[in-house]
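> example.struct
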């Protein structure tokens, strides 16, 4: 799928996907978000099984990586591999730059 960046190499969209998934997962799990929207989401999910997933950058990365993998991969095997690669890349970035608990 061409995102309209011109004649970028094929791996460029995968790298952008890793960075975007990490950023969005980090925003939802660790930040308040614009206008406290993410904080409100966490309050609304409190006490539900969704609450734990919203607090984990790595868990969110797995679910958020589904969309770019589905859009970018030419088939289901490539999509599965790209899904795991994007989620793993986002998780690796979080491990490299995230706070230690």
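> example.seq
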């Amino acid at each position: 799928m061409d995102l309209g960046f011109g004649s970028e190499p094929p791996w460029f969209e995968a790298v952008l996907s890793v960075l975007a998934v990490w950023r969005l997962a980090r925003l939802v799990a660790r930040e308040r978000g614009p206008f406290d929207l993410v904080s409100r989401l966490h309050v609304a999910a409190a006490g539900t099984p969704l609450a734990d997933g919203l607090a984990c950058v790595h868990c969110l990365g797995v679910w958020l990586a589904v969309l770019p993998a589905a859009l970018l991969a030419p088939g289901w095997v490539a999509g599965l591999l790209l899904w795991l690669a994007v989620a793993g890349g986002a998780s690796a970035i979080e491990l490299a730059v995230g706070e230690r608990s």
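> remarks
The mean pLDDT is 88.
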